[in-house]
Specification:
Alpha-Beta Plaits; 12 helices; four-stranded antiparallel β-sheet; 308 residues; 14 strands
Length: 308
Amino acid sequence: MAAISAIGLTKSYGDKEVLKGVDLEIPAGTVFALLGPNGAGKTTTVQILSTLIPADGGVARVAGHDLVREADGVRAAIGVTGQFSAVDNLLTAEENLLLMADLNHLRRREGRRRVEALLARFDLTEAARKPVATFSGGMRRKLDLAMTLVGDPEVIFLDEPTTGLDPRSRRTMWEIIRGLVSDHGVTIFLTTQYLDEADQLADRIAVLDGGRIVAEGTAEELKRIVPGGRIRLHFADGAQLGAAAALFDYATVDIEALRLDIPGDNSVLTVKTVLDVLDNASVRAERLVVETADLDDVFLTLTEGAAR
């Protein structure tokens, strides 16, 4: 069953069209990443699907509820973590979570049980009674996500959840997100500026540009639709490197690394052709590495219009 489905979502602010007919189909229990340059409409899409703002056109269902007719059902089934932490700095971590339990109308005993479980899951038990103002950025983001989970949502919208975090804190968040999906069957709708984050976490990725979805698929599927692959050859000495460089017109030479990069589609036939050319010229490579395009290549290629 689709956790989120949308057909033809549109949104304008005055004369500016932000969304121009966005279609989405996101299976339950998966991580979906929405990529796009600044101003592409990522946050607007999240705000519409989480009932924060209305769409001008189109239809959508979230967790089985119609976005317009059953907005209360949508809100009861989702959690939202925005780009900026929504915790109260004057309260402790425990008090922030208990406040969320009250807002979700949980009975006192159930609310306290859930708060204790979330503090333990996010490794915040020791800091539970410290003011949030003393927390690091990583701890604040963990608490922010924990607050989202108090209501036990089926679908969680994470709008650039690791912005401003150091690499260690980012990876901690990645593990938490993976655990929500694998252990609890939660559906994650993720927007991010970090392409490696989408590559690491997402089951499917969509690229939003100019208010439209310009590509969608797994990370590997997206990498195959743009040029950017290469065959990388390593040599034992400069003489062999120079001889190989003379055989390939469009190759890039790295003299210090004794490496030759040959652009190509990385097919078996292309690799065999390269090896045959080397063999016929009696040139010997020490090592061959085949590299595909990465998500940086995909993003830059598919959002070229916005860059112009």
